[in-house]
Amino acid sequence: MIKRRYEEAAYVLDFLPEGRVRRKGEFIAEPIAQLVGEDFFTLLEATVKPGVTVQLHERVYIGKEGREKIDRILGRVSYEELTATAKSELPAVVEKIVRSHEQRFIGFFNTARPITPKMHAFELLPGIGKKFMWQIVGEREKKNFENFEDFHKRTSIDPVKAVVRRIVEELTTEQKHKIFTRHF
Asked: What pTM, to 2 d.p., does this model score?
């Protein structure tokens, strides 16, 4: 049996202190936060504990036990269900997560493999075609990338920008292959 993994921490995309109308006209009259998970970029809605406020871009603990600010997780939401504020904050928050987990994403560049005989995982990143894919592979064969700066110097590609754009694409559009997010 595969053990399901859940987000332990998330970042606030929007805070609705008066609550909001959810699916099928259901009104939640408690403070709600729209969140993006730190590990799988899961889009979530959660109620905030009474008397507590959260700030945009704030990291909050959402694990099973000992939550300080989040009362309960209402569930996953689609990109379309996010508020206009949450949609506009998403790229900046995703960038914050990517920058704070540099080794995880450099690890992707050091270990990614072809997805099919004709397509490499690197080609799923916006702006990276065959030419840049081969450049990345060639540089990685010489020596693994150490960090974002090392990657940028050796390839002239901004790795943060490429990863952030791909994550946002995975969250906002239907994608056959998902590299960084889970299927909804």
From this structure: 0.92
